[in-house]
Structures are given as structure tokens and as C-alpha cells.
Amino acid sequence: AGPGPRAEVEAVRGGRVTARPWLAAILAVGGWAAARQAAAPPPPTPPPLLGTLHYAASWRLLPAGTASLGWSESSGQRHVRFTADASRLVNLFYPVHDVMDSDYDPATFCTQTVVNHTLEGRRCRLTRIDYQPVRHQFVLDESDPGRPDAPPKHEVQPLPGCVVDLLTALDYMRAQRLQVGDVYRFQVNEGGKTSDVQAAVDL
Predict the structure, then answer these.
(1) What is the pLDDT of residues 13-70, one digit of tens each?
(2) How far is CA 13 from CA 10, 35, 111, 130, 201, in A?
(3) How many CB atoms lie within 10 A of CB 171?
(4) pLDDT per residue as tens digits for the range 173-194
(5) Which of 19, 28, 115, 187 could be a cystine partner for 101, CB 3.0 to 4.6 Å?
(6) 45 near 106, Cβ under 8 Å?
(7) Nearest CA among 136, 138, 137, 141 for reference residue 115
(8) What count of other Cβ atoms lies within 10 Å of the Cβ of residue 127?
């Protein structure tokens, strides 16, 4: 790939190993993890992972809902989609229907666009985030489909450069090789403040 922003990562051998709980959960669900050796070149472009994984959630033996995680590729972009739906029983008390879509450049692992449809209880949101790392900004547009008269939110916020969202972070880690003791640091933005995230390989 040519010049441009890249998701930065650092691999460190030895020492204390720590990990962010939320990222560890993502790796456990997806079933992939990553690591890169120190002073190695940027991570290779992972082979296309096409298809969908399906999950079922239960609570005390009662079906609580279903989820899916799917991948596709078009016009040189990788697309990741996550969905979550409450079961019929749970939906009577607390409806849940979430769809999260993420597009990123596989050559740089920079997230380009995120679109989230969120329905959780009485909360309903449609959120779109366009990342512009070269201009060091992102544009967020959010509305409430259940309240068409409510004014939509439109914000332009600063961005340090190339960042990843949670779904792109999953694929970035999948592209690496796991070795115990390696530590990875990269920046995650989900439409708010950019967070410096550290992921460590541990047993």
C-alpha cells in the first residue's frame, strides 16, 4: 500500500501482560486473535473472510436472543456487520434490534464509515460516522427514527489520524499472529473521544 494513515501497533516481549476486558471479549467471541513481532513491517492484508457466524444467547436455560457476525468485500473495501436481536419472550419486555456496519480499507486498516441502527427498549438511534483521517476529523450524524420531529445531531470532531472502530479492531487483530507476551497499542474511535487501547497476548 502507498503512504497514508495506518493503525499503529507495538509488539513488546516479556514484562507484565495486561488487556482491556472489552477487547478480550471481542476476541473470544470472534475466535481470532493477533500479534506482531517487534520491528516487523505493517501487518499483511488478511485473506477475505466471507460468510456469517451465528450465535445464540440464553439466560438460565431460557433463550434470550441471537447475534450474528458477517463479512463481505466489495470494490476493495472490507465490510463487517454485527446484529443482535432479542428473543420473542424478551422482546415483550425489552425489545432489542441492533445492526452495526463497518467499512474499512484492508491496506491500512483505517475505518472509513460506521453505520449503527440501534433499538434497545425505548431508545432508537440511527448513527452514521464518516472518518476522514487525512483531514484529521470525523463527521457524525445521528437521528431518532421514532421521533421524526426531533432535530438531528450533526457534529464534526477532531481525529488524530487513522483509527479503528470495534469491528475493524477485530479484523486487525485477526490478521496478526498470536505469541504470548506481545502487546499491541492502537487507537479506537466510536464517534466520541479517541481511546488509546492496549491488547496483550496471554494464556
Answers:
(1) 333 333 344 444 443 444 433 333 333 445 555 556 679 999 999 988 899 999 999 9
(2) 10, 11, 28, 36, 10
(3) 21
(4) 888 887 899 998 899 999 999 9
(5) 115
(6) yes
(7) 141
(8) 17
Query: Residue 25, SS3?
Result: helix
Distance, in Å, from the CA atom of 70 to the CA atom of 176, rounded to the nearest integer, reads 19
* Encoded amino acid at 155, one letter: E
Q: Are 20 and 199 in contact, with CB atoms under 8 Å apart? A: yes
Is the separation of the CB atoms in 172 and 33 below 8 Å? no
60: left (phi over 0), alpha (psi -120 to 50) or beta: left
Q: Residue 37: which residues within 8 A CB-CB, separation 6 or more?
A: 11, 177, 179, 182
Phi–psi pair at 104, nearest 5 degrees: -145, 160
- The residues near 18 (Cβ < 8 Å, ≥ 6 apart) are 198, 200
Residue with cell 421521533: 147
Residue pLDDT, tens place only, 131-144? 999 999 999 999 99
CA–CA distances in Å: residue 158 to residues 25, 133, 155 = 28, 9, 10
d(CA 90, CA 3): 49
CB 182 within 8 A of CB 18: no
**Buried residues in 145-160 as b, exposed as e (16+ CB within 10 A):** eeeeeeeeeeeeeebe
